[in-house]
Amino acid sequence: MERKAVSQKKATTGFLRLHPILWRNLCHKYIGIMKSFFLSLKTSVWTLLALICIFFVGSYMMPMHREIFSSMNDDLLYSWAKRTALDNLWYTWWLFAAVAGLALLTINTVVCSIHAVKEKWSRSNSLLRMSPQIIHIGFLFILLAHLLGAGWGYKISGALPEGAAAQLPEKKTLYLRAVHADIDPQWGPRDWSAEVTLIENNQPVISGTLGPNRPLLYKGMAIYMKSFEFEPRPYAVLLVAKDPGAIWALVGGILFILGSLSLLALKWKKE
Predict the structure, then answer these.
(1) Is residue 104 part of a domain?
(2) Whether pTM exceeds 0.85
(3) Which candidate in 20, 53, 56, 208 could, as Cys together with 216 as Cys, close a disulfide (CB 3.0–4.6 Å)?
(4) Same domain, yes or no, for 140 and 186?
């Protein structure tokens, strides 16, 4: 009995000694599989194809169910998803699938860029190999911009009578000085505008005239004129939006264009 107990103890001790090695091997194998998956060009291609199909479904769902998606542009995406999308998953599932696809594409881009940077470079092709990474960085900045814009900042819209003011976040106040419209008796409004003043900490900081495709911009904040009425008194329907991701979208767009132009030029020169 004692010999049997000793044998079982040795076997248990041997397993415990081997266990960390087996565990480490399993981890290395799993990491290798994940690395191969995210470094594969097939992952990028199939993810992009899946996103195209998902967006195609979304382009059908949105106009067919305007009662669900009509408020999407007047709110932050995170807030809209929490209040509306989660209660209508039968019609909004494609949006969450698109976010998951973009997350997968982001990981794929980051892993590929890190792998490319770690490889040995020669002076003759360094710029050619750097151009795709610049495109990748631009793409990631654009995604970051949408992420920031979807969860932070604000969007506020409403009717503001002429001569009235509305309180905004960050101790700002929007004052509507006047509403103007050029109305044709036969064809209706030909042009319209609104004179506004933005007040911060009880001091006017900027004034301007709003109109069709003429917003007023101030420190990452944009003020738009959506519509107007003169009955029962003149007022304008305004939209105030602040997007903290706007600057990152600009940087990402510039990098994406520069990387693309550089890659095309170097490829053309090489051929």
Answers:
(1) no
(2) no
(3) 208
(4) no
